[in-house]
Amino acid sequence: MSVEVVIIDYGIGNLFSVRRAFEHCGATVVVTSDLEKILAAQRLVLPGVGAFADGMRGLKERGLDKAIRSYADSGRPLMGICLGMQMLSSVSEEFGEHQGLRIIPGRVTSISGIDHQGKPYKVPHVGWADMQSKTYETAWKGTILDGLHPGDAVYLTHSFEVKPDNPPHLLAYCDYGGKEITAAISKENIYGVQFHPEKSGPVGLKIINNFINIRL
Amino acid sequence: MVMSRVRLIARLDIKGPNLIKGIHLEGLRVIGDPREFARLYYKQGIDEIVYMDVVASLYGRNSLHDIVRNTARDVFVPLTVGGGVRSVNDVRELLRSGADKVAINTAAIKNPELIREIAHVFGSQCLVLSIEAKRQGKGSWEAYADNGREKTGLDVIDWVRRGVTLGAGEIMITSVDQEGTCKGFDTELVRAVSDAASIPVIASGGMGKTEHLVDVIAHGHADAVSVASILHYKRTSVPEIRSAAIAAGIEMRNAP
After folding, report:
1. Which residues of chain A make contact with B199, given a CB cutoff of 8 A?
2. ipTM of the predicted structure?
3. CATH match for B8-247 among 3.40.50.2300, 3.40.50.300, 3.20.20.70, 3.40.50.880
């Protein structure tokens, strides 16, 4: 019996690739903005690219913000990807201050573009970066990163990153310009990934597979 | 210090349903079905794929959607699509078909504000400004439109600065002089562009062997390298390029 995954459609981004990656991993995919289907989902994915305020507006216009929060309270698995991850946090500084879904407390801040030695480096941060964690042996077990190792690379393209308020919510980071950039956050069965698992080759597919098969 | 890995990008030029290749963007030869080549490169561990519809802007059409959709079904790395992108709606259609980014050249030269519009609607991360450059003399290059066929009078470095300000997310700089020759990149051009741009730069045109790649990264300051002929004609493979580059000290992804 194939696992059903609901992907939230709020009028933004390339949902085709996300859908295909989940199907490739054996899931039955429903792409929808229907509140009842979202509230009843067994696995929920919040994708997205673009600006934070546009994304939140897309959710609110459809009443999806409240639905996603109720779903998150249920304890069932939720994964936010890229902008979808950023919207899980409390507040974003992208083009002014905007409130997020407040599911995993944290702040979305810009990548400075100045490295640890004060030299400029390139933003947006585009490309493959190695995931790191000092506590991966325990922290990644049973999560979407189960079976992966520090050094496994994922594809990112972003100018902003999430800084979680509570350090234990940081699941993995990448090193960019000598600074830690948040790659993944988690709180119980809720996950946020800054990278694109659907564009991260076999490593990304493994993460999607883990999410589909995560223990409830 | 670990930075982003240098990206290895396979560039597939498309005409109608076919993967083609020319020299100096001319004398196009049919090579095969682009989807098969894209799948092969994905399996070999390529970091990204670029499709360029090389006659789209000439004939004012865009025939890429089927190829893009078919490729995005089982290629799980970023896919950039260019050629004949003229409007916000063209971008929307390509993203819906499964493209992650679009590359834009001719239409941006005709109407630079299009860069700002696309970046505003979809975000800078999905906009690659493609620039085709011909050398005009020492330290000077002119931007060309319509796949290297039309002069524009624009100085490449001025155009780079303008594109960054308008909101481009990356720049793909193709040397028309070197393109298809396999004789190495125009490293001086790539360095001038890279040093003028605060955004990532993809070096394109001239990759013939690993030394060229090492040179354009070390001396051209490129963030990514586009490869075409030597892959399409199977003179080498993605793992061979990758391991040779890593052996030469270039930071690349450890592809599984």
Report:
1. 122-124
2. 0.91
3. 3.20.20.70
